[in-house]
Every structure is written in structure tokens, then in C-alpha cells.
Amino acid sequence: MIKLKINGLNVSVEKGTTILEAAQSVGFPIPTLCHMEGLTPYGACRLCVVEIGTGDRTKLVTSCTYPAEEGLVVRTASERVLKARRMIVELLLASCPQSKTIQDIASKLHVTQQRFRQEHEDCILCGLCVRMCKEQMMAGAIGFRGRGQNRSIGTPFDIKSEVCRLCGGCIYVCPACQLRCTFTEPDKAICGGCLNLSPPCVDKDQFHDMMCYMDPCVACEIKED
Amino acid sequence: MRRLTSIDEFNNLRLQLNSNRTAGIPTIIINAGTCGQASGANDLIRITKRELLSRALTDKINLRITGCHGFCEMEPSLLIEPRGTFYPKVNPKDIPKIIDAVLRDTVVEELLWKELGTGDTIELQQDIPFFKQQVRTIISRSEKVDPIRIYNYIESGGYQGLAKILERGKPKWVVEEVKASGLRGRGGAGFLTGLKWEMLAAKKSGSGKFLICNADEGDPGAYMDRSVLEGNPHSIIEGMIIGAYATGATNGVVYVRHEYPLAIKHLLIALRQARELNLLGEDILGTGFAFDIDVIKGAGAFVCGEETALIRSIEGKMGEPRQRPPFPTDKGVDGKPTVINNVETWANITEIIKLGAKEFAQVGTKGNSGTKIFSLVGKVKNTGLVEVPMGATIGEIVFDIGGGSIGKAKIKAVQTGGPSGGCIPVSMFDLPIDYDSLAKAGSIMGSGGMIVMDDNTCMVDIAKYYMNFLKDESCGKCYTCRKGTQRMYELLEDITEGRGTLEHLDLLEELAHVVADTTMCGLGQTAPNPVLSTLKYFRNEYLEHIIDKRCRAGVCKELVGAPCQSACPIDTQAWRYIAHISRGEYEEAYIAIREENPFPSICARVCDHKCESRCRLGQSGDRPVAIRALKRFVTDNVEPSVYKPRRSSEKQTAKIAVVGAGPGGLTAAHYLSLMGYPVTVFEMDSKPGGMLFSCIPAYRLPKEVLTKEINSLLDENITLKCNSTLGTDFTVNSLFEDGYKAVFVAVGAQKGRQLELEGEDADGVFPSIEFLKVFNQEGKQLAKGKVGVIGGGNSAVDAARTALRQEGVESVTLLYRRTQEEMPAFEEEIEAAIQEGIKLETLVTPIKITTEAGHIAGVEFQRNLLGKMDTSGRRRPIPIEDSNFELPIDTLIIAISEQPDVNSIKQDIEGGLEITAWNTLNVNENTLECSRPGVFAGGDVVTGPNTVIAAIADGKKAAKMIDRYIHGEELRKIEQPKLPSIYIEPIQISEEEQSDIERVDIPRLPIKRRTKSFVEVERAMSDADAEHEAIRCLRCDLEFTKTKSE
Fold first, then answer.
1. Dihedral sign, Cα of residue B915, residue B920, residue B923, residue B929
2. What is the pLDDT of residues B731-756, one digit of tens each?
3. Domain ranges of chain B
4. Which residues of B touch A66 (CB under 8 A)?
């Protein structure tokens, strides 16, 4: 067993456990996007960063990929961690504002505005689909291509893959595919209300062509209360 | 080649090779690395071979083709052994001459290296400043070996280290030795090599261990690894075999960029030869030790230089880093323990074994032993590979070895460590170069790229350039690295294109910190360094881009517009009046000039024309358009009344006081008056004009021109009060008491600095400012007999040329402590002075003034040598002992700079005005506001002696600021970029015609008519010449105005 300290709490876990698993086992929430049980940890979205170490030698690492080490000191929600997570969420919102998953994470971290040039992309390259296809569907039909800003997900040379069975697993795990809820604010604002899912729909003109995850959306109504 | 089956056989081979060596026969060495071949080394090789064969000299002269020796700027170059003669930039047709000289054991004098400035020739490579100050442990070995001949390498002591450790038979000792040497990884991170090896040696692995040589050198501008691989591949191979022996590794890999074909070729040949000799393979030198090396070519992704990405790339997967731990020493290539070292690290291993750890650690500093190769590139005279001991300062590399900046530009920073590194400003050039100091300064050692930047480099643009590189070269796995670099690029793009706001800056900084914090590998963690370091040291440039919408380096196109306009401190649309002149529209040209400049005729004569130095024609190899002369042509030919200044219909009630009626004060008064303010101008002299009137001689600026221009500015809003002096007749405080709402202090720098020598108070010794003043104001001629002028600035040249024109003057000598090249005076003024017969005595410093009966009799001088460069890029004068000489002098004029007269402001210091250490007024340089609200200052009283145009610019700015101050507005506001907006149809001529036209020479008064005469020297050009000159303009403005008109 490996003993480590998470947010001051002594925790013992089996060898090979990641910090994320260790933290979750004792109930500390860590937001994740590219992580999914049953798939290999990848460490792409960086949302699950935690601060490890003591004194001047602390650093941020992704808890999903970092193995628990004997005597490790971990903080899952320090100032530095939260600052980083908020910026990551801002970056995510700036590229992919329509994602329900991202909006929910943003709400939890109290991010209601992003300050970059608004983009509308439908992929954050988290790689869940790639791993799903390969590891659970045993197909390996899609993969990453290119690097830097030209990185994308697809099949080699965009030729339809012969191993793809159109199972839809890739779509099932995608955190970015839902349409956005813009509330009544301008482009860059995020209403942040989606967390509070409950009562039925209120008819509102501006939501007519929106297909919110919680269709119909009432988040704004709840927020006004 | 015979297989060597024992260490003894190897030793015998070595002895045999050494005895075969044809000692004493001269050798011609041709540098044929990639740099050499690109500059024509292959032709040299061909011709030299032909010459040697056809003249049957093959047994009299040896030829050796080697890799790069480091001085890439001077390729193709030749080195002659054993003399050590160095021939830079050799032309193939000179080869026979050089061969003849080699045969006679002499040199071809005219082909040798020439010192800049003095023109002295230097024969020996080791005496040339570029080589002299280096410690070339690694690079110099490339001179000794032909990279494709293993015997050559063995002859020069190669594989001896390997034989030594195999004989000893103690792998542990090797690890200890490397540890003791203190060698740190040369790839940039600086991890202790010995420690890494120890970890690998301790690993037990049945299926083998890996050693990797990282030759994936991807930093823009860095190429030392390529050079070592090309020039001396066996040293890397030997280093790796030693490493394998020490750590028990079984497989070696050299991971090299596909873009390095010559390095790959040499490496493959070297590996084959090593195998043939049994230095690599199953049973190395019969000792039973097995190790072999593969070459794997990388496809050129920058991220593959990162060790975990490199490992994946070797495995045939996508080059993508992974989380550490596990470290490569635990799980590397195919899961086997692996050590990765950089090319230069491996090259150092052989050196350590050869010298011994102790000896090796003698070089460099504690904790940073050995030498480091840097590739010195950018805006520096000598570019190339530079090897220095760790702990050398940046200044030593840039100024002493690199030779400082090209031309007159000033070096402002150096970028180390490539895209992951940071910019270090010139003020920190004393920084010793080692891993820790650089990291502390916000940069990194990196693999050793060093890019020098001067004031023509925009730091925001540099940050943008690196972000552009990184957003393409990030592997893209970590979201913060991929998107973060893209977003940083986007923000920087906004800033450089004039869309930046202060929020951009905050966001940029915040994002940069998060990217550094949250990414996994070294690439992402260091990616924000270019942004963070420029933000730290050059924040002002960012603010200028955002607030003033200016790019002072003239780089960011969307802010610069036409370079001539952006270079002008007062935004004169030079392109516009030049375009009008080319069309013969002189009145329109005058209006274009006058709109921005209240003193067009004066500037047409005395401006230092920054516009010409930024002129794109001048920067593309031709001479710049003669902009100042064109202005002179217009102002001489057009009646000023064609321009009607726009007056505000609003009347302002707040009274404004302007102290000093020089160019700055009058400009401020003029613009304030146009805005409707009642202005009172106080002047200590009897006439307005300040330095224009009292110091600039009439042969440069005729008095009637000056008077006419000043009078045209005085109007009913302006009250001029002459003969009233600040400090005696009034104070800033009393002005406020008298009801003035704001004060602009522009009293200039009126006090000459003294030499601080004995006898300076003797008769016949004058500060230049006093000498010029009494002559220009009262006509008193103070110069008599032999005149000496000490100084090198404009004021010195003015004083010298004025003295020459006075009665009773025999001769005039200008005495300056550095050389003519370093003189701060305008070049054309110095030239004119020399033409007129003024003697120039440089590299002298006055030591003593001798007097006779209270009158100066002579001055004792000491001669100087030019020493090392200081951070301004000028070489410091160093006195030569026993070089003193006496010069008989009847009149001595001291012109070594001026300062503001502090006495005049003394009483106001209590009122809240602050003075700097240089006795100048302390102002906020962006708003010109002094420490006391309502008081503004500009011109020489703030900057010390400066140009007329700078004073005018301050005057304009002060008027704007005072207006904002009176209305209670914020002083510094976000401006609009000043881009060309008026379309003027260009004259159509063909490109050939355009390129045929040469710059018109500015007409000057014949020399004999200048003697004892104050008639203006420069003349206006003719109509034909002016139109001809104006057509030369490249019309940079059209890029901005053309699309609008269409």
C-alpha cells in the first residue's frame, strides 16, 4: 500500500493507483474532461491538474496520469490549481461554447465570461473517441493526425475506415457535441445556469432553434430567482 | 580496413599512423560543413585538387576537407597548417596565389583578415578577435579531422579514450569520472550526466538498455549539433561507446533530423568505418564488450527533441510526450531503460576521458564545468559558432566575440534558448552564462541558440514570431499548450495590428503563466518564456503598441504605415510631400510638411532625418531618398502663406506659461494658441529661438530664415517676454500665483560640462555653448591662433567650424577620445568640417592644461587605444602609457556635453519639481508631466542635449497634454495608428527606369567660398533634381491607400 496525503488527509491506496482515483476514493471532486473509466488515462485536457510537493518545489500535474507515490503531498483545490482550471475552462469556452459538459464545469468553477475571440469548434481533441474506438470497441478506426494547430481526429487520409462498424461509441463519449445555450447575452457570455436542471420549459423565441442538452432550457429562469 | 581484435592492435595501428604522418608538410584545410558548402567550398575543393594534381604538388602540400570551424560568416574560408594562416571568404580564383604562398611559406597579404576600423591585417586564426576570445575545445577538434576518414580521427588521438577505459576494465570508474567532471546535459535542461548514467548502470535489464544521442536540433537559428555531427562524427560515436561501456547499454541510437543530410551522410560513413575496424559490434576490440549504434531519422517535428516524444518517435509512434514518471531511465525505448544525451554532451565525454575529470572541471565555473557552444546569429557583425567556458558573460560573447552591432544600430537584447528561451536586455549583459543564472533571468540555456537583436527589432513581434512557431510545433496533446500558444499568438497579433487593449495584456500574462504551469512536457512549460520575458523587460514596447499605437522599431506594419512617417518624432508625412514633389505639386507638398511641423525651413536644414535611416529604399541596398534635401527644396520654393493653420473657434480662458522660447517652447505655444489658449512665453535671452538662435551657426541656419519662421508663429494669443529668466525674474511657483493654470518648462541644457582639469579657468578656455552664444548673439570672436576643440558631438563640430571662420584663427583641431566612427555628430557635418580644413585628432584624452600668465598655452594629451565594448556597443578608450604629448593651443573650446542649469529650478524643487541624477527634470516620459501637477517639461531640459526635432515633438506633445490637463481629462489615452490615408496617384515609370535613378547629391557651397564666411553651405536642389529624387521613392504609402481608392 502507498501512503500519501491529499488536502491534509492521510490516504492509502494500492500501487498503480492514480492521484485522481485516490482523491475520488476519499470524496474530493476533481473536474475531468478527457478521463473516463475503462479507458487509458491520457492527460490531454489538463482540467484535473492538482498541486503536488511541498515548499518551493510544488508543481501542477494532471491527477489522471500521475501515479500515487509514497509520501506525496497533494492539494486538489489550491489557489494555484483553481486559477489554472479557470483559465483552462475559459479557453475551452472560447473554442467550444456549445458543450453542455464544458458549461457545467464552467458553472462549478464560477466562470461566466471568456475573454478570447469566440470560436465555434466541435472538437477539443480530448481523445476520448480515439481511445473508445481502440480500447473498448477494438477497432482503432480513428486517430490523431498532424500536430500543433493542425492536429485533428480522423482516419488516415480521410478515407473511410474499413474497421469502423458505425457503432457510434465515439459520438457517445464526446463531451463537445451538444449545441449551445447562449441565454440572452451576447456571444461570449455563458449563462452558467445549466447545472440546475429541473422544471419544464418556458417558451422563449430566442431558443427556438437551439437544441440544448436539457431541451428545453430553463436555466435562465432559475437564475433570475 | 583490417579488423582490430585486441587493444594492442589498436595501439599499434595508432603508432603506425603517427609514424606514417608526413610531418612538416603544409596542409590546406577547407571548411566544408553545410555553411561552407553553401558559400562555395565545393568549388574551392575542386579547384585546389586540380591545382595540386596538375602542378604535381600532392607530396608537397596536403589537403584536408573538414567540417565547420565556427566562423560561418566568413565562409568559404581556408586554414593553412602549420602556420595557422586564416583566409576568409576565399574566391576560387585566388587559390593558385594561396598555393604559391604556401609553397614559399609566406602569406597572401591582401587576402588576409582585415580588422574593422583600423584596416590592419591579421594572419593567424587564433589572433582574430572572433577566435581569440573563445575556448574552442570541441569545435577546434573539427579542424584536425576529415570527418569521413577514421584514420584521421585516430591520428589526432581519437578512440584513445575508449582504448584507455577498455584496458582499465572498470565501468564504474567511468561513471564516477563523468560524475566528478560535473558535466551537465548540453541539451538545455542541465541535468548531471554522470547521475543519469549511474541510474542506468544500476538498472538490471535482461532485454537490453538503450543509449540515445539526441540530434533533433530544432531551434530556429541554432546549429551547433549539426556542425559537430558533420565535422566530427567519430567523437560522438566514441562518446557513446564509452557511455555504453560505463552503463552496460547494448543498443545505441542517434536520432537526427532528416533536414541534416550532410550530418547523416558523415555519420553513416563513420559508423561503417567504426564497425569495419571492430570499434563497434559484437566483440569490440576483442574484449567481448558488445554495442552497436543505429541512425534514426526524425521527420523534423520540434517536439521530438523532448525525450519522451523522441522515444515514442524511435518506437515508430507519433511524436508525443508522455507523463514522467516513469522516467526514461526506468522505461524508455520499448520499455527498456534508456539514457538520452545531447550531441554536445556526447562530444564532451571523450574530452573528459582524455583529460580526466579534474582537468576538465578546471574550465568553467563551479557547478557549471566545461565549455558551451553557442550559435551566435542575428544583428551582430560576426555570426557563427562560438565556444566559451561556462560563466562567460553575454556581453563578452556579443561584443567581444560577435563584434557588436552592424552599422549604427544599438543592440538591445539577446534571445537565448530558442523558442523556449527568453529575451535578456542589454542592461543585463553582465550576466554569466550558466544554467542557473539564465533560468533566474527568465530564459533558459536551451541547446545554445543566441539571437542578437538591435533597435530595429520589435520585441512584441519577436514574441509573436515564437508563438507562431510554437503553435505549429506543439504536439497538440495538452490542451493548454495547443490552444494556449494559439491564443497567445492571437493576442499578440491583435497587439501588433493595432487592436490591442490593456485587457489584452493582462489576459496574455495570465494565460502565459497558466500555460507554463499546466502543460506536461518541457515544450509547453517553457513556451510562454518569450512572452513572459519580453513582458518583463520590454513592457514599455507593449504599452506603446497598445496605447500610442506605435512600433518604435518600425516592424509592425499595421502600426508603422510608411516607415518614413513612423520614424519621424512628429509624424511628418514624408511620403506625401515626396509624392507631391514628384508630380510637381509644390504647394501641396509644403502644406503636407507644414501640417505637422511648425518649423519646416529650420528642419529642412538641421534635422537629423530619422526618416532617411528608416527609408525602405535605404534598407534594401540602395541609398535612401534624400528626404531632408527635398524638404529644403520645397521650403525654399514655396511661400509659407499657402498654409493656413486651423484655429479652434473656441476661446480658452486658462492662461498658460511657456518657459523658454526654443524650438520646444515655441512649438507648444503655437499649438496652444491654435487651440485658443492665451500663452505667455518667457525667454531669458533678448531674442527668441533658444539654441537655434544662439548655438546653431549661420552657415547651417541663416538668421533671416530663423527669424522669419519664428515670427510666422507669433500671433495675438502669444505674448513673448524676453530678458526674463527662470529662477531670477520668476519661478514656476510664482507663475501659478500669477494665475497661470499650467506651465511648460523648456529651458534647454545651457551649462557646459567641464573637463575637471587644472587650469580650466585660464583665459582662452571656453565651454562651447558660451563660445557659440557670444558669437551668435553679440558677434564677439573669442577664438584666436591655434584652436583646439575637445568633443565629438554636434556642438563640438559647430564650435570648430565657427572658430575656423573667425578672424585671427590659424588652425582648428578637433580632439576626440574615440575614433571618427564613434563620433556622435552627424556624419555629413564631420565630413564638411574635414573638407573645410579642420584637423581631426582622434583617440586622445586631455590630461593637463598648461598656462602662461593666466592664459592657456597648451594642452597635454594622452593617446588611447580602443578597448572592449561597453553596453552602448561603443568601444571604450583605454589610455596608452607613456604616450603623452603636448599640443600648443591658444584657444580651447570644451564641447563634451551640456546639462540643464539646475540653479534656475532650485527654488522650485521645494515646490515639488524633481531633478534626476543627470541634473535633468524628472518627467513622466509618456505624458511629459512633472512631479508637480500642472507643470510639464520637454526638450533638452529633460533629455539632455538632443536634436531640434525631438524638442519640437515634445512641444507638440506638451500642448496636447496641457489641453487635456486643463479639461481634466486623462493624460495618456489610447491613440489611433497613424497610417497613410491620402491617395496620391504615383507617376508611372518602369521598374528598370526606377532602379536606374541614383540619389542626387546635395549641392554645397565650394570650399574656397566657405572660408571666413558665414554664407549658408548647403543649397537647395534644382526643380529637375528634386523631381528626379522624388521619383526614387518606393511609395510605401500605396499599400495602405491604394485599396481605398479602388
1. positive
2. 999 999 999 999 999 999 888 888 88
3. 150-362, 463-560, 561-644+986-1035, 655-750+900-966, 754-896
4. 323
**Are residues A151 and B483, on separate chains, in Cβ contact within 8 Å?**
no
Q: pTM of the entire structure?
A: 0.88
- B757 CB near a chain A CB, below 8 Å? no
Distance in angstroms (rounded) separating the CA atoms of residues B6 and B213 = 27
Cell numbers given for B962: 496641457
Query: B754-896 falls under which CATH superfamily?
Result: FAD/NAD(P)-binding domain (3.50.50.60)
Distance, CA of B465 to chain centre: 18
Q: In chain A, what residues touch B484 (CB-CB under 8 Å)?
A: 91
CB contact under 8 Å between A147 and B519, yes or no, is no
Q: What is the mean pLDDT of residues B965-992?
A: 88
Give the Cα separation of A217 and A204 in Å (integer).
9
pLDDT digits 0-9 by tens, B257-300: 999 999 999 999 999 999 999 999 999 999 999 999 999 999 88
Q: What percent of chain B has pLDDT over 90?
A: 64
Q: How confident is the model at residue A186 (pLDDT cuts 50, 70, 90)?
A: very low
Can you give the three-state secondary structure of B458-516, one letter per residue? CHHHHHHHHHHHHHHHCCCCCHHHHHHHHHHHHHHHHHHCCCCCHHHHHHHHHHHHHHH
Q: CATH topology for B463-560?
A: de novo design (two linked rop proteins) (1.20.1440)
Q: Spell out which chain A residues touch chain B, with contact meaning CB-CB distance below 8 angstroms.
A: 42-46, 49, 59-62, 65-67, 69, 80, 83-84, 87-88, 91-92, 94-95, 115-117, 124-127, 144, 146-151
Domain boundary assignment for chain A: 2-77, 82-121+176-224, 128-173
Residue B347 to residue B911: CA distance in whole angstroms: 67
Q: Look at residue A198 in the predicted model and tell me its pLDDT.
A: 32
A56-72: pLDDT as tens digits? 889 999 999 999 999 99
**ipTM of predicted assembly, 2 dp:** 0.85
Which range, A145-159, B159-173, B1003-1017, is most confident?
B159-173
Average pLDDT on B139-146 reads 91
- The pLDDT of residue A10 is 95
3-state DSSP assignment of residue B255: strand
Domain at B561-644+986-1035, CATH from 2.30.30, 1.10.12, 3.30.70, 1.10.1060: 1.10.1060
Q: Per CATH, is B150-362 categorized as 3.40.50.11540?
A: yes
| Closest CA–CA distance from residue A225 to any residue of chain B (Å) | 32
Q: Does B325 touch chain A (CB under 8 A)?
A: yes
Q: Which CATH class is domain A2-77?
A: alpha beta
**Tens of pLDDT, residues B888-945:** 999 999 999 888 887 788 777 777 788 888 888 999 989 999 988 999 999 999 998 8
Question: How many C-beta atoms lie closer than 10 Å to residue A55's C-beta?
Answer: 6
Q: Which CATH number fits domain A128-173: 3.40.50.10170, 3.40.50.300, 3.40.50.150, 3.30.70.20?
A: 3.30.70.20
| B507·A80 Cβ contact <8 A | no
Q: Which fold has domain B655-750+900-966?
A: FAD/NAD(P)-binding domain (3.50.50)
What single DSSP character describes residue B882? T
Give the N- to C-terminal CA distance of chain A in Å, as an integer.
49
